């Protein structure tokens, strides 16, 4: 019977993995667009309004609004409506003086002429030194700078936004100078419908130049530049003299725009060209290799556990005499203590319920992401979805906490509901509030406005807390979960444990395998967050998440089995901490990533990084710990209900 179970488990696992792989790698698999995110059709001559977004830097991680620097401005600055996720990301989308007309190239258009004062020059120099980039949007497509590669390496890769300027030196001089990118050469790529002659924008690229523009005579609206002239077909090139950033410097901002037609393709791949990575082969190989290793280990652990348990249960059920029962050793000896409520059982209920809330949120988010609802073109969609799902999944948190609380013979369900509503969210909100105060102090657009903060508090108190209470009421009114065996009033003494069964040692060892299942994918996630790159392989992320669940469950069950065999029945909290300890490795890896991959030097920026990674690690602890706990909860009830207890 045990071998049949193992075989069916392996067949089901192989079938599921094969189906998912076919869906992921199939050429027919295509994403789709939501209303408001779908590309728009343009006729020739239609106006194209370029919008500006925040200024970003991977050195400071502090975004600023575009007009925090004195760039050229339109007559009236209009803020675009942003969703909750965009506001939390620090996006500030506004109109700009850059206006194109569809399929009508322009050359050397003058945007404005400015004269820098000392303060303006200082502000620009600081942003250039911190490597800030300008972000723009056209038809919901972000502006990118193409980085060409050789024919063997493949098509170019894209960097979001262009640098405000650059640092450099004149030949023969050691003095550091700052140069401003004041000329932008835009390229709008489009697909053309041969039947309707309408066009659909599929690419928005730029090549920035630093040019000290020159002109003859006095400046007026009709002044013609000598450095670039559309009438004389004189283009900007890298050989022009660069534009320095200094006090009392005259700066003229200009731009070109050209349109490139691309072969007609399907609608659903508008952002495919943006989603190329420089190390894509390493990425794919590492993910697949990691999945194969974890699946192999999972299969081995499952077979060992099922065969061993099948032998133990058969042996225990064959014991007939009292003398044989007294001579037995192993996990059956602690049957009268294994379901004894643990120390701080209320807090265990709270964390188990919160973990269920996290697990439900992550599963639903992953499903929506795989189906294409949360594509990179939907800015802020992922964060908005996760926040709303977290709020509405509060009902499952209350239900799970109350069910466990009643099993521990608890009677005050309102108390456990209140704790479930506040323990984890209050901790996260406190850290977030401190980090937001630091961002406010830097006058960054990443600081959450008062209105958004009020909306977050309303989601917490107005929706999440009531749902937790509803779930707790429903869970508490259901009949209590009965233990498979009776618990003695007097606890059994626990014998001295071997060094390898030391709680701290086994907990730390238990977290290695779950972390090993995700650390390669974690690298790409951290890169997308802190190095401002796209993350889009949600199909692989979903597989890794499923593997994480399986790994957490199996490593917790294995160590729980060894613990019970050594006659230690205090498994409740240890099962939670065993898989939850993977969060410690996540934070250590984040620390390693900070010192090896990032160039953050400012104390505030470092505090933001470690603050947010502390929040992520805490959430990962709750998620993985809950998975391990419920796996052991199911495991112990299964094995003790399978043996004859006199």
Automatic annotation (TrEMBL):
It holds the Pfam family EMP70. Signal peptide: none annotated. Keywords: Endosome, Golgi apparatus, Membrane, Signal, Transmembrane, Transmembrane helix. Belongs to the nonaspanin (TM9SF) (TC 9.A.2) family. The chain crosses the membrane at residues 284-306, 348-374, 380-402, 422-441, 453-476, 497-530, 536-564, 576-595, 607-635. It comes from the Eukaryota. One of its GO terms (biological process) is protein localization to membrane. InterPro entries: EMP70. This is Transmembrane 9 superfamily member. GO terms for cellular component: endosome membrane; Golgi membrane. It is a multi-pass membrane protein. It is found in: Endosome membrane; Golgi apparatus membrane.
């Amino acid at each position: 019977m045990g071998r049949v179970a193992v075989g069916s488990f392996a067949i089901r696992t192989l079938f599921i993995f094969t189906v998912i792989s076919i869906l992921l790698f199939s050429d027919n698999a295509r994403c789709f667009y939501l209303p408001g995110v779908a590309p728009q059709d343009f006729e020739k001559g239609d106006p194209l309004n370029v919008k500006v977004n925040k200024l970003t830097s991977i050195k400071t991680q502090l975004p600023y609004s575009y007009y925090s620097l004195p760039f050229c401005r339109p007559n009236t600055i209009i803020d675009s409506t942003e969703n909750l996720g965009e506001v939390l990301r620090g996006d500030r989308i506004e109109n700009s003086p850059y206006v194109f007309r569809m399929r009508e190239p322009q050359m050397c258009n003058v945007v404005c002429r400015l004269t820098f004062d000392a303060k303006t020059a200082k502000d620009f120099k600081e942003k250039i030194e911190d490597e800030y980039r300008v972000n723009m949007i056209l038809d919901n497509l972000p502006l990118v700078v193409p980085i060409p590669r050789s024919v063997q390496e493949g098509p170019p890769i894209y960097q979001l936004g262009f640098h405000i300027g650059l640092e450099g030196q004149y030949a023969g001089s050691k003095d550091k100078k700052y140069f401003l990118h004041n000329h932008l050469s835009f390229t709008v790529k489009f697909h053309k419908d041969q039947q309707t002659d309408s066009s659909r924008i599929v690419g928005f690229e730029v090549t920035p130049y630093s040019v000290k523009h020159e002109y003859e005579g006095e400046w007026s609206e009709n002044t013609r530049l000598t450095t670039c002239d559309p009438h004389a077909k004189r283009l900007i090139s890298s050989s022009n003299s660069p534009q320095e950033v200094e006090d009392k410097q005259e700066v003229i901002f200009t731009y070109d725009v050209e349109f490139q037609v691309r072969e007609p393709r399907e609608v659903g791949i508008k952002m495919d060209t943006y989603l190329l990575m420089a190390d894509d082969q390493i990425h794919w190989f590492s993910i697949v290799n990691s999945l194969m290793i974890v699946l192999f280990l999972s299969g081995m652990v499952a077979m060992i556990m099922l065969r061993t348990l099948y032998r133990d249960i058969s042996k225990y059920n064959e014991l007939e005499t009292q003398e044989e029962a007294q001579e037995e050793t192993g996990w059956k000896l602690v049957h009268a203590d294994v379901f004894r409520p643990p120390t701080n059982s209320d807090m265990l209920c709270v964390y188990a319920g919160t973990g269920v809330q996290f697990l439900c949120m992550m599963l639903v988010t992953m499903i929506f992401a795989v189906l294409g609802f949360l594509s990179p073109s939907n800015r802020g969609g992922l964060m908005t979805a996760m926040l709303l799902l977290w709020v509405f999944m509060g009902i499952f948190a209350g239900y799970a906490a109350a069910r466990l609380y009643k099993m521990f013979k608890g009677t005050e369900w309102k108390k456990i509901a209140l704790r479930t509503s506040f323990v984890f969210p209050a901790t996260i909100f406190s850290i977030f509030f401190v980090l937001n105060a630091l961002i406010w102090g830097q006058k960054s657009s990443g600081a959450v406005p008062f209105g958004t903060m009020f909306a977050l508090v309303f989601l917490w108190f107005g929706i999440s807390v009531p749902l937790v209470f509803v779930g707790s009421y429903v869970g508490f009114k259901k009949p209590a979960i009965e233990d498979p065996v009776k618990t003695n009033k007097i606890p059994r003494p626990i014998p001295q444990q071997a060094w390898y069964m030391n709680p701290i040692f086994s907990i730390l060892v238990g977290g290695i395998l779950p972390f090993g299942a995700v650390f390669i994918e974690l690298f790409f996630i951290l890169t997308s967050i802190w190095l401002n790159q796209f993350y889009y392989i949600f199909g692989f992320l979903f597989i890794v998440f499923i593997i994480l669940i399986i790994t957490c469950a199996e490593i917790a069950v294995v160590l729980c089995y060894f613990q019970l065999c050594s006659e230690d029945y205090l498994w409740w909290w240890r099962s939670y901490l065993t898989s939850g300890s993977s969060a410690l490795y996540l934070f250590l890896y984040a620390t390693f990533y900070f010192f090896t991959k990032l160039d953050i030097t400012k104390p505030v920026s470092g505090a933001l990084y470690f603050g947010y990674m502390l929040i992520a690690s805490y959430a990962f602890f709750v998620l993985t710990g809950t998975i391990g706990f419920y796996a052991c909860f199911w495991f112990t009830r299964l094995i003790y209900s399978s043996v004859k207890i006199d």
